[in-house]
């Protein structure tokens, strides 16, 4: 179980911007191998929350328990792919691979993401969709205890985003890690999630949680539409 | 994978050949104008190219030119290395620490604006006419340039990539080597190229004012003897060496830094 309790996260005033509280009194629990989608409007502190969980920002009040034993391994698919431009696709994956992990996992992930042909290509020659696939492969290569995803399919065209969600679902079927997936797109969340967590506008906290009926893979468009009509804000 | 790049490389080779013809022709025309002017004036104050090349040949044959050139290159190498290392450390520190930067930025501005000649004279006055003074003078002249360039590089480090490296637990060494160094490398190459251009001009003045060997000293001697052929021959040798360093060392390093650009 992963327990996240953010008492308060405040950004100090800087320049002309006044100090503001991004998160206040947020409580979140993630079960083992659970796929949780965090849904909320832009600017409601979703990325802030992921950065706190990832340990990139330690300036907050509260506690985050990721695992009972040792430091947990994290995968983080950022909003931008964040690949090293001076390293090839393969090298980008290899660099993230923890020591003593079998490099064969890279070949397997290259095949699954359809990137084998491009493994020796530098990221600048890839399309955005392909770069995103590399970022996805990198996150799965580390076999994370917790996989954080920050709107990883934003600004892709609809068919590409759909393909990416299918790919994510496939990868997750093979390696079911605990996933915290941030999106502002309710339909996307409904396709993927075991559980939805809606956030309030800032200072954010959990507005409501909805556990969805179990689905083996991506939910079909019909199911998504039905759920959407039931859950979408009127 | 490589197949699509072959025609492009051939095209680039042809292009670079064409690109080399123009500078070659342009230099040749310069020599021609020089020849005509020398013939027209018929004065020892403007010797013809043939005379200068003969002087150059003699200088190389007696070993005198190579001796002075070697000394100057040694000084250049040492002061260049020191300026690069110290300037990089300072620049990276200033790029990281905003407070430190606010404090030292005016210092840099002052040092950037001190004429090279002043630093050279002061170094000789304070430390005597020694090798240390000569090298210090060159380093002090060049260091602020390197620091400013590297400070810029450090400020522009991609935070997103640094965060990625932290999440994926790259550790210090891997982060330095694979995330930070590739981003600073182009700035280091820029600092090196502009640095070389700056240092080799300063070093001649340093030698002229307070050393008893090296190209600068030799040029000073030729000046007192009104030996224009000697001045031109030594200058030619020096320009060729510096240009060779640029072509053989710095330009390939620069290309290597940009290899992953599309």
**Percent range for helical residues of chain A?**
25-40%
Write down the CATH topology of the domain at 2-12 and 31-72 and 145-231 in chain A.
Answer: Rossmann fold
The top level CATH class name of chain B: Mainly Alpha
CATH architecture of chain B: Orthogonal Bundle
CATH top level assignment of the domain at 2-12 and 31-72 and 145-231 in chain A: Alpha Beta
Q: Could you explain how this protein is built, in words?
A:
The complex is a heterodimer of chains A (234) and B (262). By secondary structure, chain A is an alpha/beta fold. Chain A has helices at residues 46-54, 89-96, 104-112, 128-141, 158-174, 186-192, 221-231, and strands at 2-11, 20-30, 35-39, 61-65, 74-77, 146-150, 178-183, 195-199, 206-211. Chain B has a single domain, classed as Orthogonal Bundle (MetI-like fold). In chain B, 86% of the residues lie in helices and 0% in strands. The longest helix of chain B is centred in the last third of the chain and has 40 residues, at 171-210. Chain B is globular. Classes of the chains: A alpha/beta (234), B mainly alpha (262). The A-B interface holds A 51, 54-56, 73-76, 78, 80, 82, 84-87, 95-96, 98, 120, 122, 124-125, 138, 142 and B 1, 160-161, 163-164, 166-170, 174, 178-179, 182, 259-262.
Q: Which SSEs are present, and which pair or pack?
A:
The complex is a heterodimer of chains A (234) and B (262).
Chain A: E1 2-11, E2 20-30, E3 35-39, H1 46-54, E4 61-65, E5 74-77, H2 89-96, H3 104-112, H4 128-141, E6 146-150, H5 158-174, E7 178-183, H6 186-192, E8 195-199, E9 206-211, H7 221-231
Parallel strand pairs in A: 3-7, 3-8, 5-6, 6-7
Antiparallel strand pairs in A: 1-2, 1-4, 8-9
Chain B: H1 5-41, H2 49-62, H3 64-96, H4 98-113, H5 116-127, H6 131-155, H7 159-167, H8 171-210, H9 215-224, H10 228-257
Helix pairs in contact in B: 2-10, 3-4, 3-6, 3-8, 4-6, 5-6, 5-8, 6-8, 7-8, 8-9, 8-10, 9-10
């Amino acid at each position: 179980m992963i327990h996240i309790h953010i008492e308060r996260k405040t950004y100090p005033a800087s320049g002309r911007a006044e100090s503001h509280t991004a998160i206040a009194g947020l409580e979140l629990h993630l079960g083992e191998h659970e796929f949780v989608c965090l849904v909320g409007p832009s600017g409601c502190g979703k990325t802030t929350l992921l950065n706190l969980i990832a340990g990139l920002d330690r300036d907050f009040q509260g506690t985050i328990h990721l695992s009972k034993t040792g430091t947990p391994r994290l995968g983080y698919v950022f909003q931008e792919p964040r690949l090293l431009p001076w390293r090839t696709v393969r090298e980008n994956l290899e660099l993230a691979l923890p020591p003593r992990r079998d490099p064969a996992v890279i070949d397997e992930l290259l095949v699954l993401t359809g990137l084998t042909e491009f493994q020796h290509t530098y990221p600048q020659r890839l399309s955005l969709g392909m770069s995103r696939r590399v970022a996805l492969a990198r996150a799965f290569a580390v076999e994370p205890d917790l996989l954080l995803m920050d709107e990883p399919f934003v600004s892709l065209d609809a068919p590409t985003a759909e393909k990416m969600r299918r790919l994510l679902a496939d990868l997750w079927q093979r390696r079911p890690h605990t996933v915290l997936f941030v999106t502002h797109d309710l339909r996307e969340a409904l396709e993927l999630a075991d559980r939805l967590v809606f956030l309030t506008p800032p200072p954010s906290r959990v507005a409501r949680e909805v556990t969805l009926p179990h689905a083996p893979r991506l939910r079909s468009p019909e199911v998504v539409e039905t759920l959407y009509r039931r859950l979408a804000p009127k | 994978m490589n197949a699509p790049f072959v025609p492009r490389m051939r095209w680039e080779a042809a292009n670079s050949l064409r690109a080399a013809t123009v500078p070659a022709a342009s230099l040749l025309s310069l020599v021609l104008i020089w020849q005509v002017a020398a013939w027209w004036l018929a004065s020892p104050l403007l010797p013809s190219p043939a005379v200068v090349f003969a002087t150059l040949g003699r200088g190389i044959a007696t070993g005198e030119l190579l001796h002075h050139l070697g000394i100057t290159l040694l000084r250049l190498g040492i002061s260049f290395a020191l300026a690069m290392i110290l300037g990089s450390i300072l620049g990276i520190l200033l790029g990281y620490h905003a407070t430190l930067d606010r404090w030292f930025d005016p210092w840099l501005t002052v040092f950037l604006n001190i004429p090279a000649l002043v630093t050279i004279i002061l170094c000789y006055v304070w430390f005597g006419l020694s090798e240390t003074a000569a090298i210090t003078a060159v380093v002090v002249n060049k260091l602020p340039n390197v620091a400013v360039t590297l400070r810029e590089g450090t400020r522009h480090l991609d935070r997103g990539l640094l965060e990625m490296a932290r999440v994926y637990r790259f550790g210090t060494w891997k982060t330095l080597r694979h995330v930070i160094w590739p981003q600073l490398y182009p700035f280091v190459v820029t600092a090196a190229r502009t640095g070389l251009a700056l240092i080799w001009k300063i070093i001649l003045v340093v030698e002229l004012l307070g050393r008893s060997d090296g190209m600068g000293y030799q040029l000073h001697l030729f000046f007192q003897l009104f030996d224009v052929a000697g001045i031109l021959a030594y200058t030619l040798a020096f320009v060729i060496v510096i240009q060779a360093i640029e072509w053989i060392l710095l330009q390939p390093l620069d290309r290597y830094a940009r290899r992953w650009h599309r």
